[in-house]
Design a protein that fits this description.
Blueprint lengths: L2 E5 L6 H24 L5 H37 L4 E11 L9 E5 L2 E5 L24 E9 L2 E9 L13
Antiparallel strand pairs: 1-6, 2-3, 2-5, 3-4, 5-6
C-alpha cells in the first residue's frame, strides 16, 4: 500500500456560489440606482457606470457557471468513483520555474498531465517549485484523473516510495 499525497477537494460549495450571484446582482442594482438619483447632467457618466456594472455581473455569472460545471464534472465524479487510474513511473517531467510562465508537465504510461500554481482550477495544481508532491522522473505514482476539456485533471495521487527510482536511467 502506498502513501496518499493528494485527494480532490473543493473549498467552495455550490451554495456559496449562489450567494456570490446574489452579491453580484445586489452590486448591479445599487450601482445603477445610486447614479439614477443624481442630476441628469451626468447622463454619460451614468451610462458608463451602468455598462461597467453590467460587465461585472456578466463576468461573475460566467465565472460561477464555469466553476459549477467543473465541480459537477470533477469533484462529484471523484466522490462517485467515476474516474480513471494510471499507475507507473513519472517520465518527461518538466517542472515549472518558480516565477511561472509555463505549466509543469509529466507523463505516466503515455498519459500526459499539466498544471500550474497560477491557474484557477479544480484538482491538483501544486508545482514542485512551490512545494508540490510530484518531484522528478522515476517517482512511482498511482494517479486518479478525470478528463475535462481535453485535459487530465488530477483528483488523486498515491506514492509508492519503495518502487521509486531517483534516476529514470535505471529503468532503461
Amino acid at each position: 500500500m502506498g502513501r496518499i499525497l493528494y485527494e480532490c477537494h473543493f473549498e467552495i460549495e455550490p451554495l456559496s456560489l449562489i450567494l456570490g450571484i446574489i452579491i453580484i446582482v445586489a452590486f448591479f442594482i445599487v450601482g445603477i440606482s445610486k447614479y439614477d438619483i443624481q442630476k441628469k447632467e451626468h447622463h454619460t457618466s451614468i451610462k458608463h457606470v451602468k455598462i461597467i456594472c453590467l460587465c461585472f455581473v456578466l463576468f461573475g455569472i460566467v465565472t460561477i457557471c464555469i466553476l459549477i460545471d467543473m465541480y459537477r464534472k470533477t469533484v462529484i465524479a471523484y466522490r462517485n468513483d467515476d474516474y480513471q487510474i494510471v499507475e507507473g513511473y513519472v517520465v518527461n517531467f518538466d517542472p515549472m520555474p518558480y516565477g511561472g510562465h509555463k505549466d509543469e508537465t509529466f507523463e505516466i504510461n503515455g498519459v500526459k498531465f499539466g498544471y500550474s500554481d497560477y491557474t484557477i482550477m479544480i484538482g491538483y495544481h501544486n508545482t514542485k517549485s512551490h512545494g508540490g508532491v510530484i518531484r522528478d522522473n522515476g517517482q512511482y505514482l498511482k494517479i486518479g484523473y478525470i478528463q475535462y476539456n481535453n485535459e487530465n485533471i488530477i483528483v488523486y495521487i498515491e506514492e509508492f516510495p519503495d518502487k521509486s527510482y531517483l534516476d529514470i536511467e535505471i529503468l532503461r
